[in-house]
């Protein structure tokens, strides 16, 4: 696999899922009590940021190519 | 095909005699840049090409648009409605076909899967307030949704394959593909005045040349590998749990899977492609959130259970159910000392009957849903009630610990002469 330009959407989603996965794992082990009411706003904010990042990176690429 | 320019491009409305030939030496006018109007995509398509069309029109990543539609569909069903309307009314790129016009031509099969989807989602949304065991209430809505999705996917797959007689048919007609493409974009048409059969002909594979012109994308490696590993991991954990080798907590298993998806996506930031895992991760969030709320054992199977122990010897310490309705009738029990009973239902309803006059201490809680003890109610996330009822009967105390994950706990005190009695606890 060759290295490609940084995919910020994948990075954002990856960090979010990793953090949520660890959070749910701690909740399952009773180490930490997860409050799922926080989940929808967190996911929505992350989706919005992902959309912004995708749009901005696409715009940058189009500027580079012109 | 002879190259005879035409002046009008909507030949479906104009006869062939109304195509005056332009001066032969006139250079073709510069073709205006096609307007970025919304079209259902044929190249970026999973179902109807709506998400792909939106992505191409607005220049955003198609995966994000799809995720938005999925989330909107799950959170109230609006996404399905919006997608359905867009599928019906937005023209398809290249051909300009609109599904609602197809209905007039008797192409009902295009819309049937969508109808299944809409009905399924509407039924599901309408049942969220239902008090019964949700697994049964949601069976038909989910089945309809699944049927609609399967039919749509099957249709999308079928449309991606050329028919057996496609080459012969292409030679028999006057290249409707190019004509149709220009007709959609509003550009002047070059070529002979189309015959009626050419214009009326559906253009089955207008994007084949476009697809062939694309450079071949490397097949993704990271995403499929991670997905396969996740299947092995989750399936292996379920196997181990079923065979009794280890006691796997479903929430822990899915949480590890989600963290693995996150790690793979971080790797794909620089190496490989795995954006498809974003949709999988979002899909995993829903069961994980549900399991996080459900803090009860996943034991006892599913279905409807009715227990009415007649003597203290018949009474068990624990009663468990994963999904369904459990009725625990304790009216015949005469406790000796302090008699404790635990009962839980992960998804569904737990109903307990005790005799009026029986001293009882009750602790009832739910992850999400409603708790009701002799007329007192609490609902929402984590409702719980502690009540105790005493009586001057000289009988010993019955202690109840009742839990549901998602659903309804109800305790009723029953008097033979008065039926269900609702009164203040002592």
Major beta sheet of chain A, specifics?
none
Number of domains of chain B: 3
Low-confidence region ranges of chain B: 1-18, 30-35, 128-133, 163-209
Strand content of chain B: 15-25%
Q: Give the number of domains of chain A.
A: 1
Per DSSP, the total helix count of chain A is 2
C-alpha Rg of chain A, in Å? 16 Å
One letter per element, helices H and strands E, the order of chain B comes to HHHHHHHHHHHHHHEEEEEEEE
Task: Report the structural category of chain A.
Answer: mainly alpha
Q: How many distinct beta strands of chain A?
A: 0
Q: Which residue ranges of chain A are poorly predicted, with pLDDT under 50 across at least 5 consecutive positions?
A: none
Output mean pLDDT of chain A.
82
Give the C-alpha Rg of chain B: 32 Å
Number of strands of chain B: 8
State the share of residues found in helices of chain B, binned by percent: 25-40%
Give the % helix of chain A. over 70%
Taking the sheet with the most strands of chain B, its summary is: 8 strands, mixed
Mean pLDDT of chain B: 72
How would you explain this protein's 3D organization?
The complex is a heterodimer of chains A (66) and B (426). Chain A is mainly alpha-helical and 66 residues long. Chain A has one domain. In chain A, 73% of the residues lie in helices and 0% in strands. Chain A has 2 helices and no strands. In chain A, α1 runs antiparallel to α2. The mean pLDDT of chain A is 82. Chain B is α/β, with parallel strands linked by helices and 426 residues long. Chain B has 3 domains: 128 residues, no CATH class; 72 residues, no CATH class; 120 residues, no CATH class. Chain B is built from 14 helices and 8 strands. In chain B, strands 1, 2, 3, 4, 5, 6, 7 and 8 form an 8-stranded mixed beta sheet that branches. In chain B, α1 crosses α2. The radius of gyration of chain B is 32 Å and the shape is elongated. The termini of chain B are far apart. The N terminus of chain B is likely disordered. Chains A and B meet through α1 and α2 of A and α2, α13 and α14 of B.
């Amino acid at each position: 696999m060759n290295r490609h330009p940084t995919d910020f959407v994948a990075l954002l989603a990856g960090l979010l899922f990793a953090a949520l996965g660890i959070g749910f794992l701690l909740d399952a082990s009773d180490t930490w009590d997860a409050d799922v009411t926080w989940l929808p706003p967190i996911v929505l904010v992350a989706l919005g940021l992902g959309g912004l990042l995708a749009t901005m990176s696409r715009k940058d690429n189009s500027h580079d190519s012109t | 095909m002879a190259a005879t320019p035409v002046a009008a491009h909507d030949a479906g409305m104009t006869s062939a005699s109304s195509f005056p030939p332009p001066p032969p030496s006139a250079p073709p006018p510069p073709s205006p840049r096609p307007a970025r109007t919304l079209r259902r995509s044929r190249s970026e398509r999973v179902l109807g090409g709506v998400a792909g069309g939106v992505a191409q029109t607005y220049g955003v990543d198609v995966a994000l648009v799809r995720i938005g539609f999925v989330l909107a569909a799950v959170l109230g069903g609006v996404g399905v409605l919006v997608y359905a309307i867009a599928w019906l009314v937005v023209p398809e790129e290249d051909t300009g076909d609109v599904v609602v016009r197809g209905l007039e031509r008797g192409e009902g099969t295009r819309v049937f899967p969508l109808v299944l989807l809409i009905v399924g989602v509407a039924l599901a949304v309408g049942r969220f307030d239902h008090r019964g065991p949700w697994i049964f209430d949601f069976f038909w809505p989910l089945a309809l949704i699944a049927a609609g999705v399967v039919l749509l996917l099957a249709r999308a797959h079928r449309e991606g394959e050329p028919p057996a007689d496609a080459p012969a048919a292409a030679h028999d007609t006057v290249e409707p593909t190019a004509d149709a493409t220009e007709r959609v974009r509003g550009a002047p048409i070059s070529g002979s005045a189309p015959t009626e059969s050419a214009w009326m002909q559906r253009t089955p594979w207008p994007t084949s040349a476009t697809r062939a012109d694309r450079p071949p994308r490397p097949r993704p490696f990271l995403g499929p590998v991670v997905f396969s590993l996740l299947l092995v991991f989750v399936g292996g954990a379920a196997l181990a749990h079923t065979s009794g080798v280890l006691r796997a907590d479903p929430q822990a298993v899915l949480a590890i899977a989600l963290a693995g998806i996150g790690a793979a996506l971080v790797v794909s930031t620089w190496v490989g492609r795995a954006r498809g895992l974003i949709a999988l991760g979002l899909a995993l969030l829903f069961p994980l959130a549900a399991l996080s709320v459900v803090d009860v054992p996943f034991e006892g199977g599913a279905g409807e259970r009715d227990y009415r122990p007649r003597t203290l010897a018949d009474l068990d310490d624990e009663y468990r159910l994963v999904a369904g309705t459990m009725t625990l009738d304790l009216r015949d029990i005469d406790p000796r000392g302090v008699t404790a009973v635990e009962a839980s239902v992960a998804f569904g309803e737990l109903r307990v009957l005790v005799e009026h006059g029986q001293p009882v201490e009750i602790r009832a809680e739910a992850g999400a849903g409603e708790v009701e003890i002799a007329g007192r109610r609490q609902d929402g996330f984590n409702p719980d009630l502690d009540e105790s009822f005493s009586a001057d009967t000289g009988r010993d105390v019955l202690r109840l610990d009742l839990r549901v994950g998602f659903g309804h706990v109800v305790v009723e005190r029953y008097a033979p002469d008065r039926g269900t009695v609702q009164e203040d606890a002592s």
